[in-house]
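Researcher: Next entry in the queue.
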Amino acid sequence: MLISRIEELIRKRGYKKAFVAEKLEITVKQLRNYETGRSLIPIDKAYTLADLLEVGVEELYDRSENK
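Model: Structure for this entry, 67 residues:
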C-alpha cells in the first residue's frame, strides 16, 4: 500500500496548494485527491511535482506492507 507524503512535502516547502495545482495544471481538488491517496498521481505530473518540491519521485510516497 502506498501512503502519500505529498501534503507533508508541500507544507515543508511552504507552498500554497493553489500554486502547486497551477504548476501541475490541475485543480486544487485533484491535488487534494493525490494528497489523500484517493487517486495516484500520473507519472508525468509526479516528476513535475518532485522537481518543484526538490525531492526524488520515490519520496512522494511511502510504502506500507499490510500483513
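Model: DSSP finds four helices and two strands in the chain.
Researcher: Noted, moving on.
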